[in-house]
Amino acid sequence: MADTTQSDVVFRPKPSLPPPPNTVGVVGWLRKNLFGGPVDTILTIVGAWLIFTLFYSLYEYGIANAVWTANSYRECLDTVLPNGEKVGHNGACWAGVGVWMNQYIYGRYPDEEQWRIQLALALLVLWLLPFWLPKVEAKIQTGLSCVLTFPFLAAHLFLGGEASIFLMITSSIALALFIAVWLNVITSYAMNKSIGKVLVGVSGMADKDDRLHKYVLMAGFALLLVMSLIYVSSWDLPEVTTQAWGGLFLTLTISGIAIASALPSGVVLALGRRSKMPVIRVFCTVWIEMFRSVPLITILFMAVTMMPLFLPVALNPDKLVMVIVAVCIFASAYMAEIVRGGLQAISKGQYEAAQALGLNYWKMMTFIVMPQALKLMIPNIVGNFIGLLKDTTLVSIIGLYDILLMVKASGQDPNWLGLHSEPLLFAAGVFFIICFAMSKYSQHLERTIAGGYGRR
Amino acid sequence: MSMDTSTVDPTSGEYVASTMSDEVVIELVQVNKWYGEFHVLKDIALSVNKGERIVICGPSGSGKSTLIRCINRLEEHQAGDILVNGTALDTNVKNIDAIRRDVGMVFQSFNLFPHLTILENCTLAPIWVKGMPKAEAEKVAMQYLERVKIPEQAAKYPGQLSGGQQQRVAIARSLCMSPNIMLFDEPTSALDPEMISEVLDVMVGLAETGMTMLVVTHEMGFAKKVADRVIFMDQGEVVEQNTPDEFFNNPKSDRTKLFLSQILAH
Lengths: 456, 266
Fold this sequence. Notes:
The structure holds two protein chains of two kinds. By secondary structure, chain A is mainly α. Chain A has three domains: 34-101, no CATH class; 111-239, no CATH class; 244-456, MetI-like fold, CATH 1.10.3720.10. In chain A, 68% of the residues lie in helices and 0% in strands. Chain A has 17 helices and no strands. The longest helix of chain A has 31 residues, at 361-391. By secondary structure, chain B is of the alpha/beta class. In chain B, 36% of the residues lie in helices and 24% in strands. Chain B contains nine helices and ten strands. In chain B, the strands form two sheets. Chain B has a six-stranded mixed beta sheet with strand order 6-7-8-3-9-10, with helices on both faces. A four-stranded antiparallel beta sheet of chain B has the order 2-1-4-5, covered by helices on one side. In chain B, a hairpin with a 2-residue loop joins strand 9 and strand 10.
C-alpha cells in the first residue's frame, strides 16, 4: 500500500483576483439598478424627468414665485414678478401663513400668556432629558413620574385662574418630582451618587438600616413638596379657558395625553382580556370590542353632546375634558389589541421558566413577558401613535380649534379670504415633520433595543 | 462540592456514590390527571427521599414530563395529593410559591430569558423572589456559572451561546435559587450529540453534591451511573421501578423488556 501520510500533492489556493470592473462601485451600482437593459434605461429617464418637473414646479410655486411679505391675499395675488407678470395662483402666499402663524400654533391663547405654554414644553423636555443621560439611574421612575404627574402641572399652567385644590396638590407633586429628578441628575454628575444616597449621607444615617433610609427620603420629599405647594399656591396666573386653546398646541395636548395614557391602559386591558377571571375578562373584551368597532368621530359626538346630559349639571364637564377622555378611551381599545398580539408572540416556555423560578404573576409580566413583548410591538405601537396624532384632527369637526380648523379659519379672514392651499401645505408639513420624527425614532429604538438579542 | 468530572465520560466509569437519606421530600399519593378526556396520569404513587436521584424513562406520551411538571405545579393534578417538603400542593398560591422557591427546573428547550444577559438571567429570581441584594446575587450567580464552567459568558446574551452552554446556564439559573430539589425535563433532548456530554457532566457533578434529582431522560448511561432508582412509565402508569442494576439487567415486565430492547438496540 502507498504511503498516504506523506503526501506529494500540496494544495495551494489560487490567488484572489479583483472582480470585473463593471460590477462594483458607482458604475456597477448604476448598471445594476438604473441601466440594466433598454426597458430599465427608458424607465430611468422617464422617471428622472417626472421627478425633475414635479420638484421644479414645487420650487417655482413655493420659492421662486412665492410672496413673503404682504398685508392681504389680494396684495399677494397682485405682486408683480421680475418678468412683468402678476403672481396670481402661480406662487405661494406665505405672507398670510406668516401673519396667522401665531394662531396656528397657539390658537386664540393670549399672546402675553403664551410663555406658559413654552414653559410647560421646556419642563417636559427637561423632564425627559435624563433618559438620554447615561450616568443617571432610575430611568423608569423618571418616566413614570413624568407621565403620571406632568399633565396636571401643565393643566394648571395652561388654565391659570383659581385652581382647584386637586390641581393645586397634583401640580405641586409634579413640581416636587421634577425638582427631585433634576437634583438627582445634578448629584449623579457632580458626585457620582444618586440624590437618595447623598441625602442619606448628609443625614448621617448611612450606616443605619434600609427602613430608616426610606424615612429620610420620605422626609426629604415631604419638605420639597411643602415648598413647591407654597410656591404653586403663590402663582397668580390670569385664567385662560379651554375655549381659547387651539392650534398645534391643542392638537399636541389632546394627542399627547392620549398617547401617554394609551400604553398603560392598553396593557391593563390586554392583560384583563387574557385573565382567567371571567368578570374581568368579559369587561375588558366588551370594552375593547365596543370602542374599536365605533368610529372615533361617533365617540367624540357622544362625548360632547350626550355625556353632559347624563352627568350632573354641577359637574359642568368641560368640552375639552370630555374630548380628551373620549380619545383616550378610543386609543386604549386599539392599544389593547396591539399589546395582546405582542403577548401572544411570547412562548409558553418563558412563562413556565418564570413560574418555575418562583416569580409571581406581576413579576413575571413585569420582568419577563412585557419587556420582550414590548420590543416586538414597537413598530405597531408607534404606528398607532402616529395614527392617533392624525386622528385628533377630527376634533375640528366638533368645533375645537385645533391646527386644522385654525388653518381653515385663516382662509375666512377678510384680509386673507381664499387663502387655503398654503396654510394646508403648512399643516401638512408640520404633521409630516412630527410623524416622520416619531417613525425614525421608533426605528432607532428597534435597532438599539434589539441589540440585546444578539444572534437568535 | 467538587466539580472535577470534566475529563470523565459521564456515561461510563464509576457509579456516583448514593447520597440518599431517609427523609421523604416528595410524596405523591394516588395522583390522577386528565387533559380533557385523556387520562394522562393514573394513580401515581411515588415517594422521593432527600438526596435521592431518580431517572424517569418511557416512550413519548407516557406522562413522564407531566408527572414532574405536576411537582412544581406547572401542571395541575385533579385527584390525589402531592406533598413537597411537607407542604401540600393545592390551590393555595402561597403554598405553590413556597414550593417553587425550593424546586428548580430545567427544561428541554432551555427557556432562558433572551432579553437578559446570562448574569441577569441568574440574578433575576434571587433579587425579586428572595429579595437578595444585587451585589450578593451577582456573587452567587458567578459562583454557579463557574460551577457550570462558563463564567466568561456572563455578559453575553443567551442567543450568543451554543445549546449546551445555554442548558448549563439554565442549570446555574435554577441553582441560584438554592433549591433542594431539581427537576430535569429531558435536558439533553434538544442538544447536538457533542453537547450532550457537557450538560451531563454538570448534572453528574450536581448529583455528587447530594442534590435530590428527578430526571426525565433517555440517557441510559446517565441512569446507570447516577440513578438510585429508575422508573419506567407507559400509558400514564408506573410500569416498573427498580435500581438501575436490576432495571437494566433483570427487567420484570414484558413492556420494560420491549422498551429496553428498542432503546439499547443501537
